[in-house]
Specification:
With about 130 residues, the protein is an alpha+beta fold. The chain has a single domain, classed as Quinohemoprotein amine dehydrogenase alpha subunit, domain 2 (Lipocalin). About 20% of the residues lie in helices and about 55% in strands. It has a 9-stranded antiparallel sheet with strand order 4-3-2-1-9-8-7-6-5. The longest helix has 21 residues, at about 1-20.
């Protein structure tokens, strides 16, 4: 019986340590994140840049790309939950019409990886 209690306590401690490591603070994300993004139907990758900063105690930022379709637009709806960063970014569509792309990215140290877009984006934090 004592062995089962020790195993249970050890498993609980490992699980709590894992949760603590996966929890990201907004301040940890402050910086410039860049990496190639591809959408289904595109031949070439688009170099995306996400700049995150703290403004009035909250995470804020801008998004840009190499083609100017995303031209330092401010991002919105920023949420960090269980190692996932979510936000929305306006994009200039065909004919100059503006639309919004919603991003959902996993956070792993100095790398973020897109989860739900039609395509892929993985960015690394510039040092």
């Amino acid at each position: 019986m004592k062995l089962a209690s020790k195993i249970f306590c050890l498993a609980a401690a490992v699980m709590l340590a894992g949760l603590a490591l996966s929890a990201q603070k907004p301040a940890d994300l402050v910086g410039t994140w860049t990496g190639p993004g591809t959408l289904v139907g595109q031949d070439a990758a688009n170099e995306l840049t996400l700049v995150l900063e703290m403004k009035e105690g909250k995470l804020a930022g801008t998004m840009s790309d190499q083609y100017g379709t995303i031209n330092k637009f401010p991002i919105s709806d920023i949420v960090i939950d269980k190692g996932v960063l979510s936000f929305s970014s306006p994009v200039a569509g065909p004919g100059g019409q503006q639309t919004t792309i919603k991003y959902k990215m996993t956070i792993a140290g100095d790398t973020i990886k897109e989860l739900g877009m039609t395509g892929a984006w993985e960015a690394a934090k510039k040092k």
